[in-house]
Description:
This is DITP/XTP pyrophosphatase. Keywords: Hydrolase. This protein is α/β, with parallel strands linked by helices. The chain has helices at residues 2-17, 29-38, 63-75, 112-126, 187-190, 192-198, 200-218; strands spanning 21-24, 43-46, 81-91, 97-98, 133-144, 149-161, 178-180. Strands 1, 2, 3, 4, 5, 6 and 7 form a seven-stranded mixed beta sheet that branches. The protein is globular and about 50 Å long.
Amino acid sequence: xxxxxxxxxxxxxxxxxxxxxxxxxxxxxxxxxxxxxxxxxxxxxxxxxxxxxxxxxxxxxxxxxxxxxxxxxxxxxxxxxxxxxxxxxxxxxxxxxxxxxxxxxxxxxxxxxxxxxxxxxxxxxxxxxxxxxxxxxxxxxxxxxxxxxxxxxxxxxxxxxxxxxxxxxxxxxxxxxxxxxxxxxxxxxxxxxxxxxxxxxxxxxxxxxxxxxxxxxxx
Length: 219
């Protein structure tokens, strides 16, 4: 009996030291690095851990629909918690374009400096150039197959578009042109640590962490 109790306590201590696993439905290294910061109390698994996995097409009409779609698709291949993110930028003067098409509207162009420049050109050509307001949106979907639960968490940051692409060598996506309110520089000029203080993904992640913390307390 004493041996069993010692063994049980030893195993419990080892298991309690292990971080809970959370799967992130992306292979984007930049996003993965941000998630590792935002969800540092979890062990992060990504699509790189499932080399044969084929990502679904994004057919939703909102960020939330796309995020849920990606999370549910991955949840069919694993046991546990899955988080998927769908993010983008909405430019006020362009009727919130590109929105959910932020990553693919300029296809076949895929390099971010060129895509950012095309967005600036679009504002210059299609508007009177008086309104450069924009917002960054990130929606995270949590799917937990262990309890058949789906939740979404939204982060929004208001700001504006820079008149020119800034700092090609740091950041990704629209970091090269988006200036959040309260700052005079783009995300890319801030650097990763400072950007995370203003990030829509950070806001959504914090809501997710609060939800998970509250759920753990109930359990």
